[in-house]
Amino acid sequence: MEQTTLFRILGDETRLRAVALMAEAGEVCVCELVHALELPQPKISRHMAAMRDAGLVVPRRDAQWVFYDLDPALPDWQQDVIAATVKGIRTEAVVINDRKRLKSMNDRPVRCAVA
Amino acid sequence: MEQTTLFRILGDETRLRAVALMAEAGEVCVCELVHALELPQPKISRHMAAMRDAGLVVPRRDAQWVFYDLDPALPDWQQDVIAATVKGIRTEAVVINDRKRLKSMNDRPVRCAVA
DNA sequence: AGCGCATATCCGTTTTGGCGTATATGCTGC
DNA sequence: GCAGCATATACGCCAAAACGGATATGCGCT
Description:
Largest interface: A-B, 26 and 26 residues
Order of helices and strands of chain A: HHEHHEEHH
Number of helices of chain A: 6
Strand order of the largest sheet of chain A: 1-3-2
CATH class of chain A: Mainly Alpha
CATH superfamily of chain A: Winged helix-like DNA-binding domain superfamily/Winged helix DNA-binding domain
Strand content of chain A: 5-15%
Distance between the termini of chain A: 34 Å
Helix content of chain A: 55-70%
Largest sheet of chain A: 3 strands, antiparallel
Oligomer: homodimer
Radius of gyration of chain A: 13 Å
Number of strands of chain A: 3
């Protein structure tokens, strides 16, 4: 069963935090994740690659940045799972701080192309 | 974040199948799982122990059998996640066959005590 | 072309997790 | 107490996955 891959992805704290951030803020680029989650860049890139390979997330290149967002084409039940999860963890201290740091980040890359 | 434990649990096929079965059929005992999933007993026991330790599942001893069921006291969002998941996978061939084998099992232990 | 920032990938290591087999524990009925 | 079934755990092994750090690639600017 390939259905377990969604859970394998969500079963890692770094990726879960990234998912929560994207679900709330829409697409984010790697440097924003590095700043918001306070984690080394290679670690973020590796985890985003895992999500991309799993089909959870879609990359969009814009100049020197790569923006990731949850794939809107995910099966309904997976979107439901993610929605329920985000709802359940949005008041967690970790998640709150991630959100806070993202919002207060200086020089966030401008989204020039398609939203 | 301890929230990842739910997903770590669901990220294994054996456990996911057990969860689907319990969500549909209510509490089941180890020998029923062995029969329905067609897996060796120690493997089932180990996975059920993992779920028990994670707080996903509650054991009920009745004579020589141990029945497991999803913990009704799980946080709402986790119940939502499970509900969405079960809804999403209930038409999977594997899940259908598990259900079928459970129903057609001979000499299923009688539930003598509390439901 | 060359520099600088953003991102991705590689390498070696460590941790985690699943597995099969064997064995222990618990309960029932004689 | 003993036999027999149901369940749990222990042990050693192997594979997957996460990690830090170094390095490669991609892009924009001058």
